[in-house]
Amino acid sequence: MAFKTLASFVSLLAAFQVANSAVTRRVTCSNGQQTANAACCALFPILDDIQQNLFDGGECGEEVHESLRLTFHDAIGISPKIAATGVFGGGGADGSIAIFEDIETNFHANNGVDEIIDEQKPFIARHNISTADFIQFAGAIGVSNCPGAPRLDVFIGRKDATQPAPDKTVPEPFDSVDSILARFADAGRFSPAEVVALLASHTVAAADHVDPSIPGTPFDSTPELFDTQFFIETQLKGTLFPGTAGNQGEVESPVRGELRLQSDFELARDQRTACEWQSFVNNQRKLQSAFKAAFRKMTVLGHNVRDLIDCSDVVPNPPAPASQAHFPAGLSHRDVEQACRQTPFPVLPTDPGPATSVAPVPPS
């Protein structure tokens, strides 16, 4: 009896392995690349084109920053709360920000996104891909150029927008923490921890329009690296403005050449988010996994992921992390404005040399 039971188990296991191998069988595309789904083969020529001609040969530069920003500004344009009133509440990651550029780029929160929309248009025109899919694909590929970034998930099959998203769905840097958390909760039931994780995008971001006198000013001292410096430096005492004072949505920064958003400052110190914010300090692995999960959730807002095709294996593996968590030169633990009540701020080394001064990212 025991032998017959064992034989049956072995037969079932063999059948499962055969069935599983059929499901996971990879296809070889015309360019020799392999992927789990033949539909994803169309992405390889697009990848090569944007890496060479949009991202300057695979750099983590201005176009990457702006393409990542565009993924968010398009996807967050959805509000079940508005839809419940009988008014169209937006379609989420549906490409509306580019399809209805003449409308949505006039929304105050979308100031400046017209530049990357116009840069991306020729790529969409010469490839067989929806605008909705291209925006999210370009953002994920761009991030793959940044040392320390996670390999982000990519899906295709989104339907393009037929209506513009409503105004006021994109949070602004002068919004209160209450307002920002409520907006994310409405858009996709994002928790406060997921909001913090999404803001990891600011580690490779820069501001062009918060202070127009200094376009391309980054939010941390290593804007070309996907690292934890953003979460460290937002918790340091602000002492200066990198350009002019009095700009809406800006507060003092701890480092010359670095701009700090009011919303980042307040989220780093609010008791609902402060400990989660601090938890990313000196924790590259958590930074990668949390951002990957939050980005995946954001990029399918307005869609049923079961209706989409997973093409994540098309995304290149990003370069390894290229920095260790540290205080910028001239600063130390005494400059930390401790906000998390439960956990002490981690012990970090300070970069040697004179006080850090960050060079702005050259505008494209």
UniProtKB/TrEMBL annotation:
It comes from Trametes polyzona. The active site is at H73 (proton acceptor). Heme b binds at H202. This is Peroxidase. Its cofactor is heme b; Ca(2+). Disulfide bonds join C29-C41, C40-C311, C60-C146, C275-C340. GO terms for biological process: cellular response to oxidative stress; hydrogen peroxide catabolic process; lignin catabolic process; response to reactive oxygen species. It comes from the Eukaryota.
